[in-house]
């Protein structure tokens, strides 16, 4: 009986003496400027310990190994651990994968550990990382020019790194970039870092400007600017001195953050707001300039609508001209000559409209209105352009049914009966006294020639009238010309991202107008795909064309290299050439 009880005790002892291999962390949620300690602990000694790759972290300390033995009431207890100190490299959830070890010929693994990395937090001394105590004397500051701007009023954020005279900074790496949600932002390039002397909390410091950014708030209310965080390699005094009395320094890393900032954005006043106001804020001049006012039907003129000055030039819509239906107006070519210094955007933006008259007559382009909010005067201002008269000297007259294209005189245009104006009604005859001419071959040739030439001239005149009256055909031909023109303009703008992709987009739109006979308002992806496929274009080419349109749309608002632009341009040439061959009219 005693033997049975003894064997049972041994079995239970075997059950409770299972191998344990676990991973524990100092915290499951930490700021991106904090350190994390992870311990891999086992209750039996083992070999071939293999740590995880620590993806999303950088190892700044360890592995530190600790072993402990204890005997309690004659029972042996063993504990062994490997400790690492980690610095997060990115925000968000991060998984620390399993570590492994071999114990008594069997491989054991820890469970994966999930850690959430948040924005930078107020720094505290980490008891697991005493080196952090030496991080004093280094500060990252975000200086904001104004904390209560209007919507679309420019503000600046300047990031400065302050270093005390007792600390030495060797290098730094950006861990978390600031995010400007609900702001239009423009970084200002700093070509060379310059060390300057200044004050921080009343004490003498050296500082360097790391980044300058111009912001335009896009909505009212309290907006947050997420912080900039840096991992800095530093040499800091230890407080100890060597044999010769010189201060000893220790190398290490320190994470600094500028901290989150709040901006309270005011709405623009409702009192006095013009109906046509589209969000322009600043100090502007407004002009509408035609390239010419006298021309023939079928010729083109450029009507340039431009706004110049200082303000949010890229963040509002230019007024669109309203022209009589006899003036065929195409989508504008948008141009921006804007620079963004620390004081905000300044320069000029313009829309150039290609206009082609269809009939002769005088046509009025009504005055245009541009309104903006003047920050210096704290009120709205309106600029009116003068009216423009377009005189079409030559071309077909509108038919009696074309009431909508009557000239500005208010009189109805009447069709002139001039189909046979080329026939001279009055002739000057002279006597021919030449022997043998009457009844000769030359005589009969000259006699019959007018009757043979008249049908040819009539047909040529009819053909010209048909071409002049073919409004749809003229649109197609003009769209083809504009597509080639904008594609050529895109090639010229290689390296200038915004201008390049605007020209590319115009080229694609005008190509569709020419081939599918549709307007810009009809250019949904579903409609384009259906029409191209119905005209025998291959599905692969259609998808490449739609993908190119998406690329143009997104690339205007995201970074793009010259290589990327060249690839998109080459793709556009290939796709357009392919569709030219595949599409059937």
TrEMBL record:
The chain crosses the membrane at residues 437-460. Keywords: Membrane, Signal, Transmembrane, Transmembrane helix. Residues 1-17 form the signal peptide. Pfam families: BatD. This is Protein BatD. The lineage of its organism: Bacteria, Pseudomonadati, Bacteroidota, Flavobacteriia, Flavobacteriales.
């Amino acid at each position: 009986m005693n033997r049975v009880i003894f064997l049972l005790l041994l079995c239970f002892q075997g059950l409770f003496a299972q191998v344990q291999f676990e991973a524990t962390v100092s915290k499951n949620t930490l700021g991106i400027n904090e350190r994390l300690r992870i311990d891999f602990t086992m209750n039996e000694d083992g070999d071939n310990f293999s740590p995880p790759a620590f993806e999303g972290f950088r190892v700044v300390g360890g592995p530190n190994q600790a072993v402990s033995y204890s005997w309690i009431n004659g029972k042996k207890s063993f504990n062994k651990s490997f400790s690492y100190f980690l610095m997060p490299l990115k925000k968000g959830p991060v998984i620390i994968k399993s570590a492994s070890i071999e114990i008594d010929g069997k491989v054991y693994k820890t469970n994966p550990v999930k850690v959430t990395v948040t924005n930078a937090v107020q720094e505290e001394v980490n008891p697991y990382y005493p080196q952090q105590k030496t991080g004093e004397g280094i500060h990252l500051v975000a200086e904001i020019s104004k904390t209560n701007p209007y919507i679309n009023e420019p503000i600046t954020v300047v990031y400065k790194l302050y270093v005390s005279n007792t600390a030495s900074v060797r290098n730094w790496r950006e861990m978390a970039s600031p995010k400007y949600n609900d702001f239009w932002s423009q970084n200002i390039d700093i070509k060379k870092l310059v060390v300057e002397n200044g004050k921080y909390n009343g004490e003498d410091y050296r500082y360097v400007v790391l980044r300058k950014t111009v912001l335009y708030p896009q909505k009212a209310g309290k907006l947050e600017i997420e912080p900039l965080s840096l991992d800095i390699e530093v040499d800091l005094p230890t407080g100890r001195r060597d044999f010769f009395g010189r201060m000893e320094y220790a190398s290490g890393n320190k994470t600094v953050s500028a901290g989150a900032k709040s901006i309270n954005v005011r709405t623009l006043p409702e009192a006095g707001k013009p109906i046509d106001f589209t969000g322009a804020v600043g100090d502007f001049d407004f002009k509408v300039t035609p390239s010419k006012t006298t021309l023939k039907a079928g010729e083109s003129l450029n009507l340039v609508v431009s706004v110049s000055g200082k303000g949010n030039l890229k963040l509002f819509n230019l007024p669109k001209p309203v022209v009589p239906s006899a003036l065929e107006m195409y989508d504008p070519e948008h141009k921006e000559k804007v620079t963004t210094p620390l004081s905000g955007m300044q320069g000029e933006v313009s829309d150039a409209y290609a206009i082609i008259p269809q009939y002769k007559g005088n046509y009025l382009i009504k005055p245009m209105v541009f309104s903006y909010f003047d920050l210096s005067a704290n009120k709205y201002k309106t600029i009116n352009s003068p009216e423009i008269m377009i005189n079409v000297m030559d071309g077909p007259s509108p038919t009696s049914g074309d009431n909508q294209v009557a000239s500005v005189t208010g009189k109805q245009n009447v069709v002139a009966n001039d189909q046979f104006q080329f026939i001279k009604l009055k002739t000057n005859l002279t006597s021919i006294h030449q022997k043998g001419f009457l009844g000769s071959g030359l005589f009969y040739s000259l006699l019959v020639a007018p009757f043979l030439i008249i049908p040819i001239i009539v047909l040529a005149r009819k053909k010209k009238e048909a071409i002049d009256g073919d409004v749809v055909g003229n649109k197609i031909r003009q769209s083809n010309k504009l597509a080639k023109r904008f594609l050529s303009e895109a090639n010229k703008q290689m390296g200038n991202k915004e201008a390049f992709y605007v020209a590319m987009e115009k080229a694609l739109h005008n190509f569709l107008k020419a081939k599918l006979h549709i307007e810009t308002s009809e250019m949904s992806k579903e409609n384009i795909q259906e029409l191209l496929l119905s005209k025998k274009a291959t599905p692969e080419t259609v998808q490449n064309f739609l993908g190119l349109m998406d690329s143009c749309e997104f690339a205007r608002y995201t970074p793009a290299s010259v290589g990327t632009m060249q690839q998109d341009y080459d793709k556009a040439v290939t796709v357009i050439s392919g569709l030219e061959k595949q599409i059937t009219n």
